Amino acid sequence: MIAVLDKSEIDDLLRTQVFARLGCYANGESYVVPVAYVFDPGRTRLVMQSKPGKKIEMMRQNPQVCFEIDAAASLTEWRSAIVWGHFEELQGATALEALGLLVDRFRPLLDEARQLGQSPTPPRLRHELARDIIYCIHIERVTGRWEDGAHEQ
């Protein structure tokens, strides 16, 4: 059975996942790219970090974007949400605060990677602020669905 996620279930999905797909549109072209993010529920936004490139250029031209998040245990047991919102590039103290949210969110994953003998600091989190762009997507509306095949009749 496929059903609708309520707001608290969507917030839970946003809070517990790390990777999603960001969709943007500019100059007659659509572009969808995977991103790592952190959910900042107090400000109703998603925070990300990126090098300059196509997605940043497109969002600067057209700040209206969508964001897809999912978690799937199987073909018949999953949760998915779509977020619509607008891009804002962050600067100065606001960018540093947002970067802190990213570091806090990813610290447990980095510690786990260290314990497994993997590279402890992915390039995305090396605080290379001179070239990195810290940005957020302000959430305007959301929708979500889920399916739990275990409850099929």
Can you offer a commentary on this structure?
- The protein is α+β, with helices and mostly antiparallel strands and 153 residues long.
- It has one domain: Pnp Oxidase, Chain A, CATH 2.30.110.
- It is 27% helix and 44% strand.
- It is built from three helices and eight strands.
- The protein has helices at residues 7-16, 54-61, 92-115, and strands at residues 2-4, 19-26, 29-36, 38-40, 45-50, 64-74, 77-89, 133-148.
- Strands 1, 2, 3, 4, 5, 6, 7 and 8 form an eight-stranded antiparallel beta sheet that branches.
- Strand 2 (19-26) and strand 3 (29-36) form a beta hairpin.
- Residues 123-128 have low confidence and may be disordered.
Topology:
Elements: E1 2-4, H1 7-16, E2 19-26, E3 29-36, E4 38-40, E5 45-50, H2 54-61, E6 64-74, E7 77-89, H3 92-115, E8 133-148
Antiparallel strand pairs: 1-8, 2-3, 2-6, 4-5, 5-8, 6-7, 7-8
**Number of helical regions:** 3
Q: What structural category arises from helix and sheet content?
A: alpha+beta
Rg: 17 Å
Distance between the termini: 9 Å
CATH superfamily: Electron Transport, Fmn-binding Protein, Chain A
Specify the CATH architecture: Roll
Nearest-integer average pLDDT: 86
